[in-house]
Amino acid sequence: MRTINVSQADNTEEWLRARLGRLTGTKINAAKLTEYKVGAHKGMCRTGAGFWDILAEYMAVPADGENPADRGHRLENENAEMTFIEQGVDLDEVEFDTKLWVSDDYPWLACSPDAHEKTDTPTYAVECKSLSSAHHLEAVIPFTVARGKGSTEEFEKLLPTVPWESTRDFDYVPQKYQPQVVQYFVVNEKLETLWFSMYDPRVVIPELQHVVMLVKREDILDEIIAQEYQAVVVHDWVKRLRETFDLTDSAAVDLEVPTLDVESWHD
After folding, report:
1. Cα–Cα nearest to 211, from 158, 163, 174
2. Judging by beta carbons within 10 Å of its beta carbon (0-12, 13-18, 19+), is residue 156 exposed, middle or buried?
3. 152 CA to centre of own chain
């Protein structure tokens, strides 16, 4: 054993830097590989959430303390421009100063696009994400491997829940952002293409810095129908509860807009 001469009390910043890339007991516990005990992946490897934090220490420059929301907003246009250039889209044909999209059928249904075709009825758009390096790598590494970089058979052992056989890029979009992606298509019936663009310039491996997942309307028709139905159900229940508690004349948001009869919704 050897000792690195930094003090937790007197040299906190140096002490934290000294810990980067070194596996302490806390990190190992958070990242440890266990087994799924039940379900379809029983007996297979289960990766602790801290695994990606450790990987980020080896594959990315440390965060500088910038507020994550501010950072995402700061990088949004840069991210979008890179995506459009890669896709061969003329930047003069792109609207970066976006407004709120509202559905023609349901005025209470909306979407906040990051950038899109410069027209009243955009057919393409981009959703930009600049996440923490750990979350960025957790999403882009499986996608990059699945699309030809490395052996999926080898990685299946480490990440058995990844949809390795799927040909839809949508299935590699982090689950928490999938409804956000689908909403673009629910609100804008003319939209045909969405690029889900992930960008983290702190990552030191160029091919993992900027990764784009292509989502086509035709590939997620079931998800579009399901989300639109769910939106109608939620709105319907909100309206019922407002009426039950006699809130129709209050200063709260007005919900007196046409709604679809949930009972008659198609399969």
Report:
1. 174
2. middle
3. 22
Q: Express each pLDDT in 191-215 by its tens digit.
A: 999 999 999 999 999 999 999 999 9
**Which residues neighbour 240 within 8 Å (Cβ) at sequence distance 6 or greater?**
none
Provide the pLDDT for residue 242.
77
The helix/strand/coil state of 116 is strand
How far is the C-alpha of 199 from the C-alpha of 72, rounded, in Å? 9
Residue type (1 letter), 153? E
Give the domains, in start order, of the chain with CATH numbers: 12-59 (no CATH), 68-225 (3.90.320)
Closest CA to 175 of 157, 193, 162: 162
Taking the C-alpha atoms of residue 74 and residue 7, their distance in angstroms, rounded to an integer, is 35
Model pTM? 0.82
Cα separation of 162 and 165, whole Å? 9
Phi then psi dihedrals of residue 81, to 5 deg: -60, -45
Between CA 74 and CA 41 the distance in angstroms is 39
DSSP-assigned letter for residue 200: -
Termini Cα distance of the chain? 66
Name the H helices within the chain.
12-19, 25-31, 50-59, 68-86, 133-146, 152-158, 178-187, 206-209, 221-244
Q: Which residues make Cβ contacts (< 8 Å) with residue 143, sequence separation at least 6?
A: 169, 172, 211, 213
Tens of pLDDT, residue by residue over 41-83, are 565 566 777 888 888 988 999 889 899 999 999 999 999 999 9
